[in-house]
Every structure is written in C-alpha cells, then in structure tokens.
Design goal:
alpha/beta; Rossmann fold; seven-stranded mixed β-sheet; globular; Universal stress protein family protein; UspA; Universal_stress_UspA
Amino acid sequence: MLTMPDTESAVARAEELEHELRSLIPAHRGNVQLHRHHVREGMIGRNVGEIARFADRVVATAPYGLEARPLQVAVLEASLFAGGLPVIVVPDGGAEIAPCPGRLMLAWDGSREAMVAARAALPMLRRARLVDVVIVDPEVQVGARSDPGGDIALFLARNGVAVEVSVLARSRFRNSEVLRRHAMDTGAEAVVMGAYGHSRLREQLFGGTTREMLTNARLPLILAR
C-alpha cells in the first residue's frame, strides 16, 4: 500500500538533527555550513547524489544490520555512484577516528576503485603514524613486480605516508573475513577500500567484499569508487 509521506514529521526530525549537529561544530570553524534537505524516498538516488557533489565527505550509518535498512543503502549508493565522493561509514554503536590516527589499513587489490579510495584518503593517510597496505592472495602475472603492493607503497611514500605492506593468504572462506580479522588484530582505527568493484546487482545476488565488509562493519570504513 502506498501512502503519502509524513512531511511534517520529517521536517521536525530534520530540525532536531540540525540542532544537535550545530552544537558539535567548533565556534572557530566559520567555514562549516549546515543545510537541511527533505528528500522523498523515491528521489534519494537523484537528490542525494546532487547534494553530495558539493560536499567534501559523506558520513553515513552502516547500511546493513539485523534489520533491513533500504534508505541507508540508497543513500550510500547515491553518494558513491551519483555524488562521486568518499563515504565514511560508521558502524553500529559509533566510532571515532583520531585526528592523527595511530594505524590505518588500506585494502589493496590493484583495482581502479582501490586507487580512487587511496587518493581520496590521502590527507588522512598522511596524518597516520602508520598505514598498513593489506593484500589478500595477490595474483601473480607475467611481467608484474615481484613485490606485491610495491607500486602503491611507493606512491604513498612519495606522498608523505609512513607505509608497510602485509601480504596475507586467504586462510578463510572470504576475503572480507581475512581483512576484518587483520584489522582487528593489528588495532587499525579505520579501513580504506575501493567500493563495488563488481556491479551492485552482482553483489546483491552473490555477495562481494564491499557488501560483506559493510554487513559486518566493526570499524569505520572509508569507501570510494
């Protein structure tokens, strides 16, 4: 059954959130702007994408959990695909990334999406004491470098990032499990990774590293594509 949206409740909730957020903005940050937008559910893909293009980052809640969260999924995908900018996904229960993180993890598979994520996160990667480039079961190709991850490590070091490379065997069924376990074991404060290397439809039907990492998020994920 289709019903008309409760516009008054939505506007009231937006005003409440605006009031909460204003108290978090430092007084000296005069360059921070806060705008309210009321978006109908069927227009999320278009409207959120247009709004996101003029932001620096999108901060979003984890799109998957014990209950269905179709609106959060729509916002995340609109930000990545239509907005074209990085998204910081906050796990259930909240999380905090220090201004100068002790350790960040970059999930690397050599894809265009992973490179876009690395470039988008460069300001944060530079401030970290250490960035761990993690590669799971790298493919060995003829003519490729003998040191997996050497190219991205050199790129990051050239840009002022303290970096090390970890090459992991896929000892578990899924890459996402290997990545998640390594992040927790090493004390990473956040994971940087490319999003949706496969099509969204394929990930919905068969799963994929992006969807699995989002479903079981324990740490903030910094996604880009």
